[in-house]
What we know:
Elements: H1 2-14, H2 16-22, H3 27-39, H4 46-54, H5 58-100, H6 104-126, H7 133-155, H8 159-173
Amino acid sequence: xxxxxxFGPLLGQVAPTLATAxxxxxxxxxxxxxSNVLLGHEEGTEEDLSKALGSATPEQLADIKKxxxxxxxxxxxxxxxxxxxxxxxxxSARKMQMETRDWVxxxxxxxxxxxxxxxxxWMLINGMPHTGTEALLMMLGALGTAWTGVVNFxxxxxxxxxxxxxxLTAKETGK
Length: 175
């Protein structure tokens, strides 16, 4: 974004969170936030913002600094909301599987586990084949990724994820 190239150092000092957001997937929200402060509306173009930043008053820069703190808080709230949604999604998938007693996920998990470790053992015993090495490694990679998904589904992705899920649950129940 040209705005970041032209005013990156200024924004980096005044509003580091907004400057970081301008270079990433939240650029649209950052532009709307800056536009609201500098232009009084959210529909400002990059050119409008460049002109406004070039002639920004000290009061406007102070407003941008304040908005940066608010923006950072909003980003944290969105992250927590997204994590809560993800945790609820994993939990509902586990509950659904327990309630329906569906055998397909168990068989699929078993097939993936046997396939992944079977190929590893075969490779350790027989070594790499002279032909088809790329296909074998691609299959091993796909099975490894699938096996990670199986473990994440049944046991959770990590202790850190469990701690975050527990914290979100405690926050919801008011503990």
